[in-house]
Amino acid sequence: MTLGQRIWMPVTSPPGGGVDSSNNDDDFTLDYGLPITIKSVGYAGGVYKQGNFSASFYGSEVKDTWYQYYVNLKHRIALTDDQALLFDFNAYRTQDTGRQLASVIDNTTWSLASTYRVQAHSLTLAYQKVDSDEPMDWVGFGTMGGSVVLANAMQYATFTEPNERSWQLRYDLDLVVFGVPGLTFMTRYATGDNISNAHSKNTYYTQRYRYPDGANPRHWERDVEFRYVVQSGPAKDMSVRLRQATHRSSTGYRYPDNNEVRLIVDFPIKLF
Hints:
Layout: E1 2-3, E2 7-9, E3 28-30, E4 37-38, E5 41-50, E6 53-62, E7 66-80, E8 83-96, E9 106-118, E10 121-131, E11 139-140, E12 165-174, E13 183-193, H1 205-208, E14 219-229, E15 239-249, E16 258-266
Antiparallel strand pairs: 1-5, 2-5, 3-4, 3-11, 5-6, 6-7, 7-8, 8-9, 9-10, 10-12, 12-13, 13-14, 14-15, 15-16
Family: Belongs to the outer membrane porin (Opr) (TC 1.B.25) family.
GO cellular component, one term: membrane
Protein name: Outer membrane porin, OprD family
């Protein structure tokens, strides 16, 4: 078991889910509430692991804005030598504090992903829900945004609008079975609806976007990714990812239709 200490540093998500440090050259913002600037974020937490089960707990404070708590539970059940079930639960609890710079907030957002894995194939079903009249928000980096650890946080959309519910179907393949070690393929599709903040008492987020009752905007996203990790030689462990996303939405949703392609190269450098 490892425990984190309370420190004051910029952070966007628990370790493993996004950026957890930066320099002091600029302020931080909220991902959704962009105009609010932040000097530092305090957080504390820990990770517990026992066999095929792990649990992570973190709490953070954005001064005069919110307290935010995060929990992650993972469990793997081996069915046979080459088959397994995996469960991944994530939840955030956010409540306003101090001067309420982002107005009143009472938000619980959670997701559950269940994966069936057989040999090189994995099939995942996921459900995600925002239980609040406010959107799920987190710390970001100006117009670059931030990251959040939820099952349906896709390449373009995060499916975290007020009261939104979303589903995802995902397929992963390790192409080592076809004689190409290091090459993997992933495709996923998510759809969201039930979006409304008509009864919200939050004056900050509703100024940015209003979802009236009955409008029920919907949207969906499809992602495709190929990833290759170099297996040997001077560039060993370097990874190259080619990602494509298609996003479509109905009238009333705040993000437009979008098509994008990303090429991401990661080259690890070992100092010691």
